[in-house]
Amino acid sequence: MLEKIQAAIAAIPYPSRPEGLYEPISYVMSMGGKRLRPTLVLLAYSLFRSDWERALPAATALEMYHNHTLLHDDLMDRADMRRGMATVHKKWDDNTAILSGDTMLLMAAQTIATQRVGRFNEVNALFLQSAIEICEGQQYDVNFERRRDVTEEEYIEMIRLKTSVLLGCAAKMGALLADASDADSEVLYRFAEKIGLAFQLQDDYLDCFGDPKVFGKRIGGDILCGKKTFMTVAAMQRMADDEERGAFLDMLDASAESEEEEEAKIARVIGIYRRLDIPAVADRRIQGFYDEAKDILSTLTADTGVLWDYAMSLLKRKV
Amino acid sequence: MLEKIQAAIAAIPYPSRPEGLYEPISYVMSMGGKRLRPTLVLLAYSLFRSDWERALPAATALEMYHNHTLLHDDLMDRADMRRGMATVHKKWDDNTAILSGDTMLLMAAQTIATQRVGRFNEVNALFLQSAIEICEGQQYDVNFERRRDVTEEEYIEMIRLKTSVLLGCAAKMGALLADASDADSEVLYRFAEKIGLAFQLQDDYLDCFGDPKVFGKRIGGDILCGKKTFMTVAAMQRMADDEERGAFLDMLDASAESEEEEEAKIARVIGIYRRLDIPAVADRRIQGFYDEAKDILSTLTADTGVLWDYAMSLLKRKV
Fold first, then answer.
1. What is the DSSP letter of B163?
2. Is the peptide bond before B212 cis (omega within 30 degrees of 0)?
3. ipTM summary value
4. Which single residue of A40, A79, A95, A293 has CA 20 to 30 Å from B140?
């Protein structure tokens, strides 16, 4: 399936003119990645029908849409690198990132709008509604960066909108393209949404407490760049007063000048998390979403083994 | 009709949360403007059916889309003012302009995608295709700013994509919503496209040679900010060599420090246009598009008087 997705992405036709509009789009789409969202579309489709290649154009369009959000988010975050490559506003300029990003959104919307597979009108409405919710999630993320009193529930709602909604959309889109019932389509949405929440919280958790060999990234990366994660929010909610929270934020925002300072900063922050019992808090939440996802999926009559295994491989969990 | 459009725009429901996402959208939509595109939708619809209020949601969505392009274009051009008010990136910040702009595009697409009036699937496809072409036009505009050898034909193709395509889309959308035939819908597209070209070139012309009382803006505004217009392109195409073109561009880019210098700069540039006979060149082009638009519209059997009068009122021309 992944091979077919990669081939479909590589086969997207880009006009050669105007110069500077489509080249950045092709560049972004060739950067790679797990192709998680199109895979979810196809796996969900395959629960109901075997001819999943019919869902490939919509699946590929969803990856185009996802990369549009990465392009605009990287610009807003002033992130210079993505997957080891220069981001578009860095390699070209800000205006190129804005305009090529807009074009990617439109190309995705156009592909999805012109499908005539399964319940295509509902697929289109689902996509656009999800995309609006994702903008809302991004805005909450921006707002939360300026606040000190974000609650766990608010944080979870933010990541639900910013990231889980698109996984729910992908899974439900697969079901709708395969002409599945309302009930089955909704089950897939809720399943993927919960998996998305578990996945995102686990990413925050592993950044602090993961095994670097399994995690694949340096431990403490989020801490070093002062990113507000679930761990930060959960810890701040458990601090005594604004003074303690202020001191913690100052520590998180301080830049480390040497490798020793970096290690010291990471150790200090992780020490605070341990003292406040945040590993257990996070683990309970992750397990909760994981259990919910499992319960939701079990209500489907179709054989969901492949979909479940895929989700678990993302979560890097043993079933 | 304009009253109903204004009322429909004022009645768009914006969620109150997340803070900072919908407020700039409501701000932009309340800035006013001629509401030219939704008016074209409704006038075109009325040629075929009298119940034009059915086309109001799509017409309003097209105005939302148009304002999305203005929002992102103003950000790319670093324009601080629009219709006498601060632009969104100025009043808020760049990231707000990016994200609220994306949301406007999605709200417009969602409204258009969920219409079930007339030939709605074709309306949706037309809208998305037009929006992609408008991105291409914007990219050509960016590219042309860096070039000295843009031809009149290239310039006209750029403004066709950047501005006329949306007028064509508006008029054809009205026809499709009213269940008009392919042929009639296409006639309306081509009519509005030509009117758009005439309108845009006339705007460039009037900036140099208009009557300030009728034009409503200061004469020479484009010259003062060094904007490349049809006049600039047509003049440069008629210059002897790169040396002359270079000197002209230096003059155009030079900033005027006092009112006397401003008047002198405007007089110098207009003097060059007159010497190269650009007023006549531009006038021939405008008249050509105007005649084409008239011919195209005359092939319709419906009574097009109101639509023609509206187009002429935009062009500020006597029939």
1. I
2. no
3. 0.94
4. A79
Which residues of A touch chain B, with CB atoms under 8 Å apart? 15, 17-21, 72, 75-76, 94-95, 98-99, 101-103, 105-107, 109-110, 113-114, 124-125, 128-129, 131-132, 135-136, 138-140, 142-143
Same fold for the pair A1-180 and A182-319: yes
For residue B148, what pLDDT band results from cuts at 50, 70 and 90? confident
Percent of chain A beyond pLDDT 70? 98
Cβ within 8 Å of residue A155, ≥6 positions away: A144, A230, A233
Sketch the domain layout of chain A as residue ranges.
1-180, 182-319
- H runs (alpha helix) in chain B: 2-10, 23-29, 36-46, 56-77, 88-91, 94-113, 120-145, 152-159, 165-177, 182-209, 212-215, 221-224, 230-237, 242-253, 259-275, 278-298, 305-315
Closest chain A C-alpha to B89 CA, distance in angstroms: 12
B217 vs A229: which has the higher pLDDT = A229
A76 contacts B95? CB cut-off 8 A: yes
**CATH 3.40.50.2300 describes domain A182-319:** no
User: Which of the residues A98, A147, A165, A169 would you substitute to probe the B interface, choosing the one with the greatest number of B C-beta atoms within 10 Å?
Assistant: A98
B75, B99, B136 member nearest A139 (Cβ):
B99
Are B171 and B41 in contact, with CB atoms under 8 Å apart? yes
HSE value, Cβ hemisphere, 13 Å, CA-based, for A225 = 11
Torsion sign across C-alpha atoms B122, B125, B131, B137: negative
B132–A21 CB contact, under 8 Å = no
Q: Which of A152, A153, A158 is nearest to A140 (CA)?
A: A158
In B, which residues are within 8 Å of A17 by CB distance? 136
Report CB contact under 8 Å: B98, A110.
Answer: no
Q: Which CATH architecture has domain A1-180?
A: Orthogonal Bundle (1.10)
The partner residues of A131 in beta bridges, in order of sequence, read: none
CB atoms within 10 A of CB B86: 12
For chains A and B, CB pairs below 8 A equal: 103
Question: Considering CB atoms only, which of A98, A106, A136 is closest to B98?
Answer: A98
Integer Cα distance of B241 and B238 in angstroms: 9
Nearest chain B Cα distance for residue A168, angstroms: 18
What three-state secondary structure class fits B220?
A: coil
Is B143 close to A95, i.e. CB distance below 8 A?
no
Say whether B128 and A110 touch across the interface (CB within 8 A). yes
* Contact residues, chain B, for A20 at CB < 8 Å: 139, 142-143
Q: Which residue, among B192, B135, B160, B150, has the nearest Cα to B308 in the 3D structure?
A: B192
**Cβ atoms of B170 and B38 closer than 8 Å:** yes
User: Can you tell me the distance from the alpha carbon of A21 to that of B35, in angstroms, rounded to the nearest whole number?
Assistant: 29
- Work out the mean pLDDT of chain B and round it to a whole number: 94
Inter-chain CB proximity A98 and B72 less than 8 Å: yes
pLDDT, one tens digit per residue, over B272-319 is: 999 999 999 999 999 999 999 999 999 998 889 999 999 998 877 543
Distance CA A263, CA A220 (A): 9
Angle between helices B259-275 and B242-253 (to 10 degrees): 150
What does the pLDDT look like over B58-89, one tens digit per residue? 999 999 999 999 999 999 999 999 999 999 99
